[in-house]
Amino acid sequence: SSSVAKTMAVSAALLVAVGAGLALVDRRVDFSAPVRRIAERALAVLAGAALLIGLVGALLFVDVGGRAGDAWDQLHAPPAPPTATSSNRLTSGLQSNRADLWRVAFAEFEKQPLVGIGAENFGVAYVRDRHSDTETLYPHSFPLQVLTQTGLVGALLLAVFLAAAILAAVGAIRRQGALASGVSALGLVIFASWFVHGAVDWFWELPALAAPALAFLALAGASGQELPAASSRRARLTGRVAAALAVVVALSFVPPWLAARETRAAALEWRADGAGAAARLDRARRLNPLSDRADLTAGSIARRRQDWDAMAAAYERALERNPHSWYSHLQLALARALQGDRAGAAAELELAKELNPTEPTIALVAGWVGRGEPVKVGEVAEILLERHAQVTGGELDGEPTRKP
Questions:
Q1: Global pTM?
Q2: Apex 42 CA angle, 36 and 47, nearest 5
Q3: Counting CB atoms within 10 angstroms of each CB, which of 51, 121, 200, 349 has the fewest?
Q4: Cα separations (Å) of 154 from 111, 142, 214?
């Protein structure tokens, strides 16, 4: 909200002013060693006193047991309906079915403990095995996400990385002076705060949080280390290799970005230029052969044009790229029914139900197909679009979920 933005802006400005003032004082005033030692001890005493007062206050005035019980109940409760006062996720509590998310994550790890189920695949497992109506892509826990999706191999690699980084930070703290050690300790604390909070949330997926946390971890370990000489042959070679790798990584993002751009443009212009939209979707498929997004958009366009053959072909192509999509099976079932192939529609609905047993639209369409009634493709689309709009306010397969 605007009030939050103003508060953050004012706080940032004050912190910049204070930091600049301290920097000026540090440059102009040279305190003697005894004065610095007294100041350091005084700050340590004040910090310890503040911590002690906070702990005593919490024990005296906060019902710790009651709060812990409430938090435990919230972990097992479904998300509360969004309201004007609960939309802020920093104040909305733990009510998001985390216990059910973690149950599914542990179950998937038990199935494939060595290498996991693959990155970004948790959403497929959760809609299949969930005990709620929540739809999510993440287990709301960074450690569990690593363990579930990359298995023991990924978890071991992460543990080695964290151990090396923390040991480097501890070494930097020990070998430096008071101020530099404080900087390293601060970097380590900031990373630890992000990691601990990320153990019960999906912080890893937010670059604005993950990137600074990792940067502070790097700062904590690198502080006080001497950089290699600029003329060093090893330094030049390392720099060139790093630059080449950075270019390769950056270029790897270009084709998927162009594919997403082409798909978005096709979704916006298909009414005015059907042939142009089809050409854009063809380019998107070639640019990103691992994604089914272009075919999902093509199927959505074909549905709105009532071209059932093209709709079926589009969702068949989507399933070739992503056979775990219950949504594509559902849409292909609708296309099959509208083509007059009710047996094929029933088979697709069974596959969709296996992937998402509690999805209400699958049961709705199965009832129409089983009773021989006409399928109402528009009604299914409205249900899915409205539900998607409540969650994201965005788009579904290029189709706006909120009417202008």
A1: 0.73
A2: 125
A3: 51
A4: 16, 12, 18
